[in-house]
Specification:
alpha/beta, Rossmann fold, 2 domains, 4-stranded parallel beta sheet, globular, binds N-carbamoyl-L-aspartate
């Protein structure tokens, strides 16, 4: 059974295969509009979402599938009564052909998949992974930069709790001569296990303390929101806000990405800058998620 649980299940070949399928879908949406006519997709989100949920729902609908969903699974599903994820999946498997899950537990998607009754797609698991976001991020980098080998990427914001960051750097590490720079407040530094993982793959992680330490010709600046819902207390002031003046210190070829939602870490005064591509990035999620649904349901 195919599941999408972690970036770790990918290699260069499977990534390229996914990107090719996403391109084919994008260029010929009509041809795909009945591929999943007989399928039902369950959408179970135990945490807030706009893009991931609505793009998965749109992806299913554009493929002809139907969806069943609970508006707020944490409050309105039987989880509120103490039901385990495994029991929920066993029941949903009697109704739906695949399930998309977002949950505050790092192990939620793996637990759901352990039932092995329907394909599970991890739409964000705690502070652990968010593989489908990372896949659309890589697809966006490939489209904007033409290649991924040799890219220099700065990761900013919440490197500790940011699951999109964790999934993204695992995928970046599959490519040759990639350079990764990290810029965050001390309290939100990248955990050592990820620095070690990069080192094992031959990537030296460069921890920076200011925008000045990032190369001017950096290819990608990937900012993220402080994940305030994942810890107690106040995190103080955002120190690394990207506004027009900051962005203009970098090359005209640098692209600015963000998984969204942004709070204050990217100022709206750069939204119209051609380097800002976060809305295009979010849109790419539709094609990647259509491709993923086809793959897990063996209709690719
Ligand atoms: C991210 C998430 O849920 O981890 N959102 C998303 O899916 N685009 C990032 C975030 O919430 O900050």
């Amino acid at each position: 059974m195919k599941h999408i649980l972690s970036s770790e299940q990918y290699n260069r070949e499977s990534l390229e295969e996914l990107f090719t399928l996403a391109d084919k879908i994008r260029n010929n949406m009509k041809e795909y509009s009945h591929k999943l006519d007989d399928k039902i997709i369950a959408i179970m989100f135990y945490e807030p979402s706009t893009r991931t949920r609505l793009s998965f729902e749109t992806a299913a609908l554009k493929l002809g599938a139907k969806i069943i969903t609970t508006e707020n699974a944490r409050e309105f599903s039987s989880a509120a009564k103490g039901e385990t994820i495994q029991d929920t999946v066993k029941v949903i498997a009697g109704y739906a052909d695949a399930m998309v899950i977002r949950h505050s537990s790092d192990t939620s998607a793996v637990e759901a998949a352990s039932v092995e009754k329907i394909p599970i797609l991890n739409a964000g698991a705690g502070k652990g992974e968010h593989p489908t976001q990372a896949l659309l991020d890589m697809y966006t980098i490939k489209h904007k930069k033409g290649k991924i080998d040799g890219v220099k990427v700065a990761i900013l914001g919440d490197l500790l709790y940011g699951r999109t960051i964790h999934s993204l750097i695992k995928l970046l590490s599959l490519y040759d001569n990639v350079e990764i720079y990290g810029l965050s407040k001390e309290a939100f530094m990248l955990p050592q296990e990820y620095i070690d993982m990069l080192k094992e793959k031959g990537i030296e992680y460069k921890k920076c303390n200011s925008f000045d330490e990032l190369p001017k010709d950096i290819d990608v600046i990937y900012h993220t929101r402080i994940q305030a819902e994942r810890f107690e207390g106040d995190f103080g002031k955002e120190e690394f806000i990207i506004n027009k003046e900051v962005l203009d210190r970098f090359s005209e070829h640098t692209i600015l990405m963000h998984p969204l939602p942004r709070v204050i870490e990217i100022s709206t005064d750069v939204d119209d800058d051609p380097r800002a591509c976060y809305f295009e990035q979010a849109h790419n999620g539709l094609y990647i998620r259509m491709a993923l649904l086809l793959q897990v349901l063996d209709r690719a």
